[in-house]
């Protein structure tokens, strides 16, 4: 699973209709708008099928929001024996609650310690080291800092922005949420496929 959040997505309603396509002119968008609020979307993409799995939407991006999303993703396939989740180094991706969930799912009985004091929970590096352990039922892969672009979900989020959000007009945050989830359903049914990953990690010649 390739996972990330799209935060602060604005529900902007255009005050006037845009001008349609005309010979020699692109579609033009009204610049005045009404702002109805924002939503955060947490999405995971199956890199094998290209499907968007268990999308989450809400007003916040908290430790509990991310944990709930991971739990929803795992619940989509109870028979799976191993999960690999690629996500960036954000603190909520290396949280105490996530460590406890992975430990529970993996049948780990050892004492996890106390957050900010001792044991596995002592610090973000110690929690990240535990979550990176691929012998657990759920293992996390964290790209190096400033290299989030290697996470394929970034490509899909750009598709969402270009095809729906950039030129959309939304009457409310509920309308925004409904249309994003409808787009995901449409994408899964008609457009989902693996990305052709061409980057080989080679340093370009000077």
Numbering strands along the chain, what is their spatial order in the largest sheet? Answer: 1-2-3
- Report the radius of gyration as a whole number of Å: 20 Å
Q: Helices and strands: which structural class?
A: alpha+beta
3D shape: elongated
Mean pLDDT metric = 93
Tell me how many strands there are.
5
- Percent of residues in helical segments? 25-40%
- How far do the termini sit from each other? 35 Å
| Quaternary status | single chain
How large a portion of the residues is in β-strands, by DSSP E?
A: 15-25%
Give the helix tally: 5
| Unreliable stretches covering 5 or more consecutive residues | none
Largest sheet: 3 strands, antiparallel
In short:
The chain is an alpha+beta fold. The protein is built from five helices and five strands; from the N terminus they run βββαβααβαα.
What do these coordinates show?
- The protein has helices at 63-75, 96-105, 124-131, 153-165, 173-190, and strands spanning 2-14, 33-45, 52-58, 83-86, 138-141.
- The protein is of the alpha+beta class.
- The strands form 2 sheets. It has a 3-stranded antiparallel β-sheet with strand order 1-2-3. It has a two-stranded parallel ribbon with strand order 4-5.
Task: Supply the key terms.
alpha+beta; single chain; about 20% strand; 5 helices; about 210 residues; two-stranded parallel sheet
Layout: helices, strands, pairs:
Elements: E1 2-14, E2 33-45, E3 52-58, H1 63-75, E4 83-86, H2 96-105, H3 124-131, E5 138-141, H4 153-165, H5 173-190
Parallel strand pairs: 4-5
Antiparallel strand pairs: 1-2, 2-3
């Amino acid at each position: 699973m390739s996972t990330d959040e799209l935060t602060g997505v604005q529900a902007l309603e255009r005050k006037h209709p845009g001008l349609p396509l005309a010979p020699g002119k692109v579609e033009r968008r009204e610049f005045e708008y009404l702002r109805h609020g924002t939503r955060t979307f947490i999405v995971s993409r199956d890199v094998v099928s290209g499907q968007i799995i268990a999308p989450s939407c809400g007003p916040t991006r908290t430790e509990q929001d991310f944990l709930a999303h991971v739990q929803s993703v795992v619940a989509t396939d109870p028979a799976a024996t191993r999960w690999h989740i690629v996500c960036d180094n954000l603190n909520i991706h290396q949280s105490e609650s996530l460590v406890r969930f992975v430990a529970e799912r993996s049948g780990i009985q050892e004492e996890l310690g106390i957050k900010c004091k001792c044991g596995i929970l002592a610090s973000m590096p110690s929690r990240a080291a535990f979550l990176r352990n691929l012998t657990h039922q759920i293992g996390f892969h964290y790209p190096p800092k400033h290299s989030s672009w290697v996470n394929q979900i970034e490509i899909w989020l750009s598709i969402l922005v270009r095809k729906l959000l950039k030129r959309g007009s939304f009457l409310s945050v509920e309308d925004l949420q409904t249309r994003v989830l409808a787009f995901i359903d449409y994408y899964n049914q008609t457009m989902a496929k693996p990305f052709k990953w061409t980057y080989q990690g080679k340093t370009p010649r000077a």
